[in-house]
Amino acid sequence: MRTHVNSVGLIVRSDPALSFSYPSHIDQSSLDALPQQPGIYIFRDGAGTAIYVGKSVNIRSRVLSHLRTPEEMQMLARSARIDFERTGGEIGALLREAQLIKKLQPVFNQKLRRTREMCGYVLPEESVALQLVYGRERDFAGTDNLFGLFGSRAAALEALRGLVQQHGLCPALLGLEKIARGRPCFAHQIGRCHGACAGAETPEVHRARLLEALGDWQVARWPYGGAIGIVEESDGLRQVQLVDRWCYMGVKPKGRRKPMARGEFDIDVYQILRRPLLGGNLVIEPQ
Fold first, then answer.
1. What span, in angstroms and rounded, lies between the C-alpha atoms of 197 and 6?
2. pLDDT of residue 147
3. What band does 88 get if pLDDT is binned at 50, 70 and 90?
4. For the range 1-10, what are the long-range contacts, defined as Cβ-Cβ under 8 Å and sequence gap of 24 or more?
5. Ranges 91-95, 185-189, 202-206, 255-259: which has the least confidence
6. Phi, psi angles (nearest 5°) of residue 251
7. Which residues of the chain are in CATH 3.40.1440.10 domains?
8. Which among 99, 115, 112, 107 is positioned nearest to 155, based on CA atoms?
9. Which CATH code fits 2-104?
């Protein structure tokens, strides 16, 4: 809520809704065409450039809510029309939204942008140290003992530091601190490390505690031998969303089709599909 000082020195809080005007400049025919089914929608400027991509189980209701939101005045002021694509259900809308945001890079979408430096941690068998690995060098869909998915090396290191502090792990053993041989890490000196660096805790115990701490970070391997189709249907529209190795390949075309290219791991697709897919909550067709 905005504030200003009036003529007598009083601070006045102004409601943005009071100065908000309905965006009548947006093409009315594009609004009238919006359906009440699942899908994605695209706000476009006067040149036809996509400036925002969204998704909803009810496209019309969601778009109209944007038009009534004063906090989105900047985006609405630049919008000239709204396009849409129906999908067979919510999963299709989520996948298509993520795909289009990466492709179009709309200025008002802050999340789901293309990740240039995808990385994660691998814990080799019988090792006490994590290795930071990158998606450009390794097949994340088929990697065992992979933990955490990050958009940059800096984000990965920051997350690991937080995990180490939370669970009393040794930053020296995990490569976050350099120490001279025979000397404990600084965290142990101030009582935040259980002492694996000083012999107070065995490497085996430290590794077991590390694995327990990493539990929520574990990345699931692709559970199928190849591509699958996720079937959804809404108000007469039936679609099969093709996915391979945690990568969205698009809607399955009707009739014959060419063989699909091999999918490459996508963080956003993984986050969208992991729970419903591994939980058995989706209708699947082998491809």
1. 63
2. 96
3. very high
4. none
5. 255-259
6. -80, 135
7. 2-104
8. 115
9. 3.40.1440.10
